[in-house]
Amino acid sequence: MLIGKWDEAMYYVLGDPTTKPKGYDPMTEAALLWEKDNYVPKTRYNLSPFAISLNEIVPGLLVKLPPTDSRLRPDQRHLENGEYEFANAEKLRLEQLQRQPRWFKKDEDGSYRYMGGYWEAREKNNWDGIPDIFGQGCDLPSCSEE
31 and 93 share a domain? Predict the structure, then answer.
């Protein structure tokens, strides 16, 4: 069972609390999963260190990423570094280079349906035919010739 508030802390308790006696307080057995860091450096958009870390590219991942992965967006890097004018200029440039979705198709009802192929391409590290939507040429390990 999970207990907590999304903006304060989250705890877990193993087992089914409905089988416990009346008056049972699950917090007596709760283990802390996550707790809000009260010291968060101020950023323009109040991005927490955790939010910024979601774009981090860990070792071993870069070689598996297609050149279109949003974690490679240069405008995001500028934003994270506090370079707001560069970020905005880069965002506008990238918007001019947008392409149609490759792995999804828009259905008649307006929803998108996965067409397949992404995981197969990733497994083979084969990104042939992927457009350079970030407009900087591809210098990633996943783009290099074998």
Answer: no
The whole-number pLDDT of residue 44 equals 63
Question: What's the pTM?
Answer: 0.46
Residue 90: is it exposed, middle or buried by C-beta count within 10 angstroms (0-12/13-18/19+)?
buried
Domain encompassing residue 58? 49-143
Yes or no: say if 102 and 143 are a contact pair by the CB < 8 Å rule. Answer: no
The rounded Cα 121 to chain-centroid distance in angstroms is: 20
- pLDDT tens for residues 28-64? 889 999 998 777 677 766 777 777 788 888 888 888 8
Percent of the chain with pLDDT over 90: 27
Burial class from Cβ neighbours inside 10 Å (0-12, 13-18, 19+) for residue 138 reads: middle
